[in-house]
Amino acid sequence: MENVAPLPCGHAWPVLSAPPHVRICLELISDLTGRESEVFRLLGMGKDNREISRELGVAERTTRAHVTGVMTKLGLDSRLQVGIVAASVLCWCGT
């Protein structure tokens, strides 16, 4: 039986059925906190910090901290990279 990974879209998918570029990140994505997963999903939708802050009901400074946490956990250097990875994952899971 394949390992199943929870995704920020709320679905759980078999890891081995994921495309290679998504599969690489699934384990790292599963290490995100609930709030970081929400931020990851919103970045994948192209939202900026102000929009994310408004949607989550938190200060923009808090959003920046979550974005930094996501970047660190995923080993990425920019929010653009996070957005690209998140958009790929969200497209794959049909969100």
Automatic annotation (TrEMBL):
Keywords for the protein's UniProt record, in alphabetical order: DNA-binding
One Pfam family of this chain: GerE
Keyword DNA-binding listed: yes
SMART domains according to UniProt: HTH_LUXR
Gene3D superfamilies per the UniProt record, alphabetical: Winged helix-like DNA-binding domain superfamily/Winged helix DNA-binding domain (1.10.10.10)
InterPro entries: Sig_transdc_resp-reg_C-effctor (IPR016032), Tscrpt_reg_LuxR_C (IPR000792), WalR-like (IPR039420), WH-like_DNA-bd_sf (IPR036388)
Ranges where the HTH luxR-type domain occurs: 25-90
Protein name (Swiss-Prot/TrEMBL): LuxR C-terminal-related transcriptional regulator
Natural source organism: Kitasatospora purpeofusca
Lineage of origin: Bacteria, Bacillati, Actinomycetota, Actinomycetes, Kitasatosporales
